[in-house]
Specification:
about 450 residues; Elongation Factor Tu (Ef-tu), domain 3; four-stranded antiparallel beta sheet; 25 strands; elongated
Length: about 450
């Protein structure tokens, strides 16, 4: 009995397990799903873009800030009390050339002018008097010379009579004495003539000095009126009415608004492009002047752009900025009030919007676009066509060609290359889509639009 229980406990589970395994094997496992076979494409589909030929011009973009062309500090050229200060002299006011700003009390200078005018008139009268004396002296000299001639003839006649003992010795001596007296009178008149000439020269110099002093007094009188030297804006007002100012005291600072300048910095590669745009025949060593290049100054408000025409005119300072290693330059805007408005798409507007700036203002942060001419042919590709490694994938006759050209310039979302050096042609198409495991010579095809 015990033996049957042991067999039932150990043998029966093994029989059941074996039967289950046998049933599983008999039924078999799940069949795998059928696989679909696809043909590998003969060419990898890619998206491409055209390579464009350059138009012989490139644009360099840089940031800048508007600075005044010049600031003029007007100072009092004469001392005195500020008699009048006009409203045009207030800070922020626009002034035109010749507008009156200050007037210094002119009474002292008017009195000086009147006094010197009288001194000049007195000097003229004294010259007229001396001229009259010179004329009288000339008449006296003529009479004295005639008197001497008569005395000489009398002495000669008496010399002949004395030899024949017709006249006495005393009569002859009297005639000689009269001759000497006449000659002495002539000498005195001639000496008086020289004295009168010197006196006249002295009076002429006195008249010239009086005229010079009168001109100086009139100049000082005109300087009592301080006017604007050019069109501009008052940026600082230093003196109030009724104040006393000494000669040389600054009274007002005016910013010249007839022209404006934009201060910007260019990298050395950009400066090299500017040098490369130098016209043929220009001496490379003609100083270190920058060749004037057309430029646009752009200021953006919301979705509108405002443009001014300018020209890259000069370098600033002595060389490169030690911190940024860039070259400070100045762009001159000859007409800061001549502005063009463009919409968000770059289309010029027929009229300026009411909220548009009417002129370049000091301190504006703007963009500077330099327009340079390039002599060598260029081609450009979209920026997305340039791989992180600098490679450019080109599709030619259905195959991929890998180029690693040296960029010439990048602007406005495109990268420019020298056509001769890069090997890129305007007839090529550049690959802009991503490629897995790209190989030179692999077959590619233009992807169809989905």
């Amino acid at each position: 009995m015990n033996m049957l229980r042991v067999i039932f406990r150990w043998v029966l589970p093994l029989v059941i397990l074996g039967a289950a395994i046998g049933g599983f094997v008999a039924l078999g496992g799940p069949k795998p799903p059928p696989r679909k076979t696809t043909e590998e494409p003969a060419a990898v589909p890619v998206r491409t873009a055209a390579i464009e030929a350059g138009d012989g011009r490139i644009e360099i973009e840089a940031d800048g800030v508007v600075v005044p062309l010049r600031e003029v500090t007007l100072a009092a050229e004469v001392s005195g009390r500020v008699l009048r200060k006009t409203d045009a002299c207030n800070e922020g006011q626009l002034v035109a050339k010749g507008d009156l700003l200050f007037e210094i009390d002119p009474r002292d200078y008017e009195l000086d002018v009147e006094r010197l005018e009288r001194e000049a008139a007195q000097a003229k009268l004294m010259i007229a008097e001396i001229d009259e004396e010179i004329a009288q002296n000339a008449t006296a000299i003529d009479l004295a010379r005639r008197q001497v001639e008569l005395a000489k003839r009398e002495v000669a006649r008496l010399d002949t009579l004395k030899a024949g003992r017709i006249v006495t010795e005393s009569e002859h001596d009297r005639a000689v004495r009269d001759e000497l007296t006449a000659a002495n009178a002539l000498t005195i008149q001639e000496g008086q003539k020289r004295v009168l000439a010197k006196r006249r020269n002295r009076l002429v110099e006195a008249e010239s000095l009086a005229s010079t002093m009168l001109e100086k007094a009139r100049l000082d009188l005109s300087r009592t009126r301080i006017t604007a030297p050019a069109d501009g804006r008052v940026v600082e007002d230093k003196v109030e009415q009724e104040s006393f100012v000494a000669k040389g005291t600054p009274v007002v600072v005016i910013e010249d608004t007839s022209s404006a300048e934009v201060k910007t910095n260019l990298r050395m590669d950009e400066v090299a492009r500017v040098w490369g745009a130098r016209k043929a025949g220009t001496q490379a060593g003609a100083g270190q002047d920058v060749p004037e290049s057309p430029a646009k100054v752009v200021f953006t408000i919301d979705d509108r752009r405002y443009e001014w025409d300018g020209v890259l005119s000069r370098y600033e300072g002595r060389g490169l900025d030690e911190k940024t290693r860039t070259l400070p330059c100045r762009v001159r805007v000859p007409e800061p009030a001549r502005v063009r408005a463009l919409d968000r798409y770059g289309v010029p507007l027929a009229t300026l919007p009411p909220d548009a700036p009417r002129s370049l203002l000091r301190g504006m942060f703007v963009e500077v676009w330099l327009e340079l001419e390039v002599s060598q042919p260029l081609v450009s590709v979209p920026e997305e066509a340039v791989r992180p490694s600098g490679d450019v994938f080109v599709m030619r006759e259905g195959r991929l060609h890998v180029f690693h050209p040296r960029p010439f310039h990048a602007a406005a979302g495109r990268v420019l290359y020298a056509q001769d050096e890069s090997g890129l042609l305007p007839t090529d198409r550049v690959v802009v889509s991503q490629l897995a495991n790209p190989r030179d010579g692999m077959e590619i095809a233009e992807a169809t639009a989905p």
